[in-house]
Write a sequence for this structure.
């Protein structure tokens, strides 16, 4: 399959995630994310009243949306759609106007202390070398699966076909590409 | 009954959590001053297009220049807000159709020469002579050319000033209104609302100057009309949100019982719009002399409108929906 037709997505198995934060630390180390900031994070929803409780733990990040509002609202073209639908920010095109931060339905972006807007890149620099994103490579429970949803033989495609899944805030209309398996 | 839900997150990014607060006073100042500048350009251009004579008062003649000065202060605030200031020129290396901010950047570029020509064309002979005297020798021929152009193309410049002024006023609202992620911004009425507020605050600033009687009468009428339209748009916006789905109801709640209710209704609606309208009505009915308190309140209300809406919008997101 050609590179242009690829559709990179991630699945997060909420039945496997224990919230160990290894993904968060791996991302910080791999991408030199500055202190006090994060590109991915852990959300824990606890429903009900003790002792009748249920919990869902999710590893969250930029959703690399198909109709990315950040890309639409970026006035300089710094935020753009790259290989496999991955949304990236070109640092030396970003004026730090923060329109993309306001436009993001997931609040996944932040201003890097160097001045440009930063966020998850799906570790495209690793993916291009045939490696997995840093968060996926360290996940000890196999919660995170990354791959090309357009490839029927990919693990991520099979997960999406055989498991129930949901996305965060589908009502935003942004078309997120991080799926939570339930 | 909906089960209790407790959400904890490890994310604590500056300016993002616990709720977005990435745009601060700089943007409020820009939206406010940009609105006033838009209002002044729309009013000065419209008044001359609809009346046969040039501006009679000195204030009206010089106001296009004041509009550009205010816009420049606003743009300075905007520039200060940029996190990567050196790359500000990147706005002008592209034109992004889907980005209202990109439209705004180009409208601003076109506004400066138009406003300058609008001002030069308004000046009387004595003022032009004074300007020629102040001009450095090297710039004299350029000044003469600009003055000739401003006279020869007066009609076109006035129309352009009107269109660009409307564009500036609307874009400042569209910038916020086109973001579905911010529930308390996401309304197509945000553009017209900011334009109406820009016209009323622009008129208020003009009314604080020494004007010709005829000009004052027209501006008082335009100011009252803009404020009435503004009230109508606010009512429509809140009604639209309150009668829509969960996202709209969340947005409306911010102003109808939620955290922004007190500041919005007291500063924006009552002190910024209803009281000045009442003062206008009393002045007209009792034939009283003009008092400055009305325009001052309108200006404060215009600033409060931008401040409240900017804060309310940033504090609204899908993840906060019940």
């Amino acid at each position: 399959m050609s590179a242009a037709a690829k559709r990179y997505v991630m699945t997060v198995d909420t039945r496997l995630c224990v919230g160990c934060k290894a993904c968060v630390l791996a991302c910080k180390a791999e991408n030199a994310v500055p202190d006090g900031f994060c590109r991915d994070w852990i959300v824990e929803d606890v429903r009900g009243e003790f002792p009748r409780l249920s919990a869902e733990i999710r590893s969250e990040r930029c959703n690399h949306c198909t109709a990315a509002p950040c890309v639409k609202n970026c006035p300089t073209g710094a935020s753009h759609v790259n290989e496999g639908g991955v949304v990236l920010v070109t640092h030396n095109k970003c004026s730090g106007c923060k329109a993309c931060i306001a436009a993001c339905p997931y609040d996944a972006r932040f201003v890097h202390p160097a001045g440009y807007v930063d966020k998850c890149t799906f570790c495209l620099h690793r993916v291009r070398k045939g490696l997995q994103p840093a968060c996926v490579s360290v996940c000890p429970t196999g919660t995170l699966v990354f791959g090309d949803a357009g490839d029927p033989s990919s693990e991520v495609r099979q997960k999406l076909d055989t498991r129930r899944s949901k996305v965060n805030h589908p009502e935003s209309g942004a078309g997120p590409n991080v799926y939570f398996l339930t | 009954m909906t089960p209790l839900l407790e959400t904890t997150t490890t994310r604590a990014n500056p300016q993002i959590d616990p709720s977005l607060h990435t745009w601060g006073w700089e943007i409020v100042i820009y939206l406010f001053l940009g609105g006033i500048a838009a209002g002044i350009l729309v009013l000065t251009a419209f008044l001359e297009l609809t009346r046969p004579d040039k501006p009679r008062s000195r204030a009206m003649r010089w106001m296009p220049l004041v509009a550009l000065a205010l816009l420049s202060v606003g743009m300075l605030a905007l520039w200060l807000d940029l996190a990567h200031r050196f790359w500000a020129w990147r706005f002008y290396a592209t034109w992004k159709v889907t980005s209202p901010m990109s439209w705004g950047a180009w409208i601003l570029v076109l506004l400066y020469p138009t406003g300058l020509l609008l001002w030069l064309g308004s000046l009387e002979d004595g003022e032009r002579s004074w300007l020629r005297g102040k001009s450095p020798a090297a710039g004299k021929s350029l000044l003469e050319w600009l003055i000739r152009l401003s006279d020869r193309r007066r009609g076109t410049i006035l129309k352009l000033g009107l269109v660009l002024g409307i564009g500036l006023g609307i874009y400042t609202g569209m910038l916020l209104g086109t973001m579905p992620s911010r529930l308390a911004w996401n309304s197509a009425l945000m553009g017209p609302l900011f334009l109406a507020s820009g016209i009323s605050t622009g008129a208020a600033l003009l009314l604080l100057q020494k004007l010709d009687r005829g000009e004052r009468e027209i501006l008082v009428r335009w100011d009252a009309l803009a404020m009435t339209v503004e009230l109508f748009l606010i009512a429509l916006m809140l009604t639209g949100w309150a009668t829509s789905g969960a996202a709209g109801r969340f947005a409306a709640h911010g102003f109808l019982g939620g955290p922004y209710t007190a500041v919005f209704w007291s500063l924006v609606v009552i002190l910024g719009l209803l009281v000045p309208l009442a003062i206008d009505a009393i002045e007209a009915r009792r034939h009283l002399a003009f008092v400055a308190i009305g325009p001052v309140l309108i200006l404060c209300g215009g600033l409060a409108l931008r401040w409240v809406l900017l804060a309310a919008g940033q504090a609204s997101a899908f993840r906060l929906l019940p």
